[in-house]
## 1
Amino acid sequence: MRAGALWDGTGEGYRRDVDITVEDGVITSVAPVRRGAPAPTVDASDRTVLPGLVDVHNHWHLRGRQWAGRQGPLWLAYGVTTSRSTGDPVYRMLETREALRSGAVPGPRYLGSGEPLDGARVRFGFMRPVHSRAQLHRELRRAEELGYHVLKSYQRLPVALERVALRRMRRAGTQVVSHYLYPAVGTGLNGMEHTGGENRLGYSRTLSYAAGRTAEDTVTLLARSGMYVSTTLLFAYELYLDSRDLIEDPRTRTLFPSWEYAALLARAEAAAGPGSELDRAWTEGDVDLLLRVQRAGGLVVAGTDAPLDFVGISVHQNLRAPVRHGFTPVEALRTATANAAEALGAAGTLGVVRPGARADLLVVDGDPLRDIAAAARVEQVLVDGYHHTVRELLAPYAGLPQEPAPATAPRPARWPDAVAPGPPSRADMIDWCRQPRGPPGHFAPPPHPRPTD
Ligand SMILES: [Zn+2]
């Protein structure tokens, strides 16, 4: 591949006019174009080349049946070449992993996981309740034999059992992550998913309820422990007010099932509606934490939580929102390249363009180091050396009639859409604090308190 400009996944700027040689799915050389060199197989001499993007947190099979085979092409078309599950129904994960590995379905490299483990009382029906040490070992054996990349300890697994899981999973080379900073940081877990997920401990919140502001001890613990934190900026749809490029894009219009597309339009609409001011503040608070952790030397990694957020486009929302609220474009891109690879234990192999790395490459139109939106303008993608154009990825779906909406409601109404708009009272705030709300797995922001409250 000949690149007019190459960003290697870590540096501050571009290398100009380079040839990238790939053999058997591996990059073997990255060198200046030689005079008289033969014509390249892929000519991107008037384009920018980046490493393929990594999404460390998603769940293909939560609502996955509604997507059928469309997720793989859609992730690739938006530049994601590595996709890591943090919890899926395990036999569906295996089916998808085999389909992707065999090439029967085009898509990213897929690092799978099974059902998260929880305490005796599970948060969601598909999770595995753990009652005893003996049962825990049966679950861990299942994780070993089915090859989980990561095991998610959800919210209620007792710490003593979590330590047992960590010891055994380390031997198997499987990561263990949770939603918590503490006690996870003491136990030695690999990462904290979300800037502040639901909490069942009654302590150890990483964010305040005042739209996600964070105290310095959280930043220090994350930066010094080596635990990664995933971005999962689920409320960043303020960005749709500035630009609807991801909504109008042919990749979105062609590969989204019709009901997902309708949900996306509704989400964009809500960006100007009641509650949007609070969501904006919430995103700002999240990014404030992430930026402080990153600049203190911590490991911030891009995670989408799709399809709870929108498949494909959410990775770009997780790059754009940080830039809007203080990251430089290079800092944001690193979260989905070198940082993410490091978090997955694949530093030097994924998320970088250098000899020895897997040949995961994007050809984009524009200058993403100046304009982060250009990272989404993917035209061609290599994953493990296999080449796809966006046109080829869309071709099987182009011209198909729109899918009928499913019989069941695809997406629950999220607060504040479910309640009458208007400033909430103190009683509303207390009520919110007592009752879980929001889409599965994620806590919605609290009502915006009036100054007089
Ligand atoms: Zn999740």
Note: The domain at 51-351 is CATH 3.20.20.140 (TIM Barrel).
## 2
Amino acid sequence: MRSAVRTYALAVDAPDPLPKEGIQPAAGHFARGCAICHGAPGEPRSPAALAMLPQPPDLSRVVGQWEDAELFRIVKHGVRFTGMPAWPTQARDDEVWSMVAFLRKLPTMEGTAYRALAYGDRPAPPMKPSRFDEALAECTRCHGADGMGYSPLTPVLAGQKEGYLVESLNAYLERQRPSGMMQLSVQATDRALLPDLARHFASLPRQKVLGTAKDERVREGEQIARQGRPALKVPACLGCHQDAARNPLYPVLAGQPQAYLARQLLLFREGSRSGRPFSHLMVSAAEHLSDADIERVSAYFSILPRED
Ligand code: HEC
Ligand code: HEC
Ligand code: HEC
């Protein structure tokens, strides 16, 4: 196992620095998807886990033995013939890198710091939430009670269109929108509660916008949003994303964190977010966006106040 991991990892390029902004959702994912076998700071491994062969190690003791690329390889692909599972989706690598960033913090993390990251300011919800308040406690671990999200890679749910939220939850559930983090959470939650959760988050007020400085980048982003890049076949974004009354499945972008918007545009551009009835509209809108234009247009929408 060790030499296979080392060999495969030679072909992996680790980002430097690791994506620290992904540590919170990775901790949230760890609590549901990893701690059951590996334990966590302040949560020792269960007797059942200790009886497994091979035994899932206490990760805080062993991660130091691996390079970043090796941890990536283990977490993405799992370890065959052991209980160690692969990441729930193979369609994107960014979430796995967030997990590697979290694993690097494990050896020095105290139980209180871990619980704050993984559960927010509330007690841990049950593994199979079946009442509305339990399900809500599951979501607010990462999205916050105010629906604003604890990480710039987590979307603001507060004030998003209800129809779009329902559509997105179904997309995760049916594995048509790849996200290991969301997939695990929606699969654990009673399906009948998903529309109620969507209605709840849609009804929350969207709070302050993160920044308002109109720098050069934002001005160029605004131009793309208003006019597109006709020579490159990039459509004007506001045609679909401005009017709140337009199609309930066209999401509101105003006030979303820039890192989240940029990440989604990359996923559309590479075709990995493509499974739903309206996704092709965005795949073709993002297809010809350059990396720099993705940065610009995301910066613009992130500081845009919500109308309505
Ligand atoms: C069902 C139990 C189970 C779950 C869930 C699980 N693991 Fe593991 N994991 C194992 C076992 C068993 C091994 C030991 C494999 C071996 O020694 O060959 C392992 C090994 C590892 C290793 C290599 C450590 C070492 O030095 O051997 C890492 C890193 C790791 N797991 C991370 C994770 C992460 C991150 C998650 C959650 C996304 C996770 N695991 C979920 C059972 C599990
Ligand atoms: C472990 C952290 C975590 C938990 C728990 C979690 N989410 Fe998420 N959520 C995320 C992240 C990260 C994303 C972005 C995923 C992506 O890139 O597609 C996301 C995306 C979403 C989206 C898509 C929004 C958009 O603008 O496209 C919805 C809807 C959502 N979550 C609702 C929920 C609900 C409802 C729950 C509870 C059942 C929940 N989430 C639990 C982290 C989490
Ligand atoms: C023809 C209509 C249309 C145009 C033009 C359009 N979009 Fe979209 N956009 C959509 C639809 C529909 C979705 C939801 C797709 C899905 O969930 O699969 C979406 C989703 C998105 C998302 C994901 C939001 C989230 O919460 O996850 C981003 C970011 C986005 N669009 C940015 C842009 C940008 C930037 C442009 C301009 C370059 C643009 N869109 C142009 C219709 C459009």
Note: The chain has a mean pLDDT of 94.
